[in-house]
Amino acid sequence: MTVVRDYGSFRDPSGHVYQITNRTFRTVNDRAIENYQFVRDTGLFRKLADAGWLVESREVDESILSLPRDSRCRIVLEHPTLPFVSYPYEWSFSALKAAALLHLDIHVKALECGVTLSDASAYNVQFIGSRPIFIDILSFRRYQDGEFWIGHRQFCEQFLNPLLLRAYFGIAHNSWYRGGVEGITTAELNRLIPWWRKCLSWNAFTQVYLQAKMESVAIAKPQSALQAVKTRKLPRTTFLFLLTQLRNWIKKLVPRQASKTAWANYATVNSYTGEEAAAKHTFIKEFIESTHPRLVWDLGCNTGDYSATALAGGAHYVVGFDFDQHALETAFIRAHAAHLDFLPLFLDVANPSPNQGWKELERKGLQARARADALIGLAFVHHLAIGRNIPLRRAVAWLCGLASRGVIEFVRKDDPTVQQMLSLRDDIFSDYTEEAFVSALQRQARLLKVETVSSTGRRLYWYDRS
């Protein structure tokens, strides 16, 4: 068995994450053993895991990783392997909000047990469907009476500030967050928020303006700031009040509705009749029932209609991708309400999440994180080929490379939707024809089934290259 160390866990000297095939392990090194054992013995890990807030863990024989004797490893834990790893810059507003609330809830429970969190990284949270789950066992340590919230600044940058960007200005956090990786600084957000809002909102005044002011003072007079932190005390009751007050504020935040996007209402207002939509659902369900995929990627998932159909057909887990913020919000709320094993994520397919971070290995690109068993790409190809000028054959090759089998819909150029896309630009897409699409698809895979599903000639193509 090959033991592979997760490069994204290199920063933490307390322990590291390893993979063996589809199993996930975490080491607890000598510097973290005392805190780990203390927190474990309080029963906090068990309580949080039973509540579904914390990833399950069990201690296993450390020899399984075959680490060198000088590795400093004291304990090896095994965790369930997550169906898919996502990052905060791929989450919708509601997903980021759910992750922030979980982090605060866990910290409150921890303090009640004499435990605190050593950081407040959003990357310590993952999702199983729409359910956030905390994954970093080694973030927990013994609480020292009177200590400050050491992760406060990080929480603001990675949770609060991105949420406020959308709640106050209607600007999605995704691109800014991805560019910064560590979130949005309070100094930057403070410059954006008008003075009147900071004056009228106690939360905005204390969490943004005062935080930015204190950061600037700390930069100007680092020794004075350090001394103040060493001498001041924060009673546990005040600590808990701070967490609870912040939670209550975040819970009330809602995304400011910017102008409606082009595809926000596509699921309910499109060119399909009821019978035509039903035919698409039947086709997808048949495909899923025949292929039995564990992980399905739904590109252009919109509000999740066909992701839900895939799950009903027997798919174990669906990750949906879309660039429309309104659609993603609806999809996430739907997944949460129906308890679906469906995670909708933000994706610009012409500019997907890359490998980035330290040595371009810390945060993995989309295809480096998982390989889908099946692909659904409905009403999608024309957005690549016409919307983003990706040559049709390249778009098809890329799609087929994501999964060995899938269903791709082709929308003809005379379709009303494509005509709308072409209405304000020159038609330079002479190669965008169904014949060219079929030819490109057959270079990549076998066609198992083709079906016309609309009066405008839209067709579904079931391909297989396994």
Word description of this protein:
By secondary structure, the protein is of the alpha/beta class. The chain has 18 helices and 16 strands. It has helices spanning 33-42, 44-50, 93-112, 152-169, 174-180, 186-192, 195-200, 202-220, 222-231, 236-252, 274-291, 305-312, 325-338, 366-369, 381-387, 392-402, 416-422, 434-444; strands spanning 3-5, 17-20, 23-29, 58-60, 73-79, 115-117, 125-128, 131-134, 140-142, 295-299, 317-322, 342-346, 374-377, 405-410, 446-452, 459-464. The strands form four sheets. It has a seven-stranded mixed β-sheet with strand order 12-11-10-13-14-16-15, with helices on both faces. Strands 1-2-3-5-4 form a five-stranded antiparallel β-sheet, with no helix packed on it. A two-stranded antiparallel sheet has the order 6-9. Strand 2 (17-20) and strand 3 (23-29) form a beta hairpin. The two termini are 25 Å apart.
Chart the SSEs and their pairings:
Blueprint: E1 3-5, E2 17-20, E3 23-29, H1 33-42, H2 44-50, E4 58-60, E5 73-79, H3 93-112, E6 115-117, E7 125-128, E8 131-134, E9 140-142, H4 152-169, H5 174-180, H6 186-192, H7 195-200, H8 202-220, H9 222-231, H10 236-252, H11 274-291, E10 295-299, H12 305-312, E11 317-322, H13 325-338, E12 342-346, H14 366-369, E13 374-377, H15 381-387, H16 392-402, E14 405-410, H17 416-422, H18 434-444, E15 446-452, E16 459-464
Helix pairs in contact: 3-4, 3-10, 6-8, 8-9, 11-12, 16-18
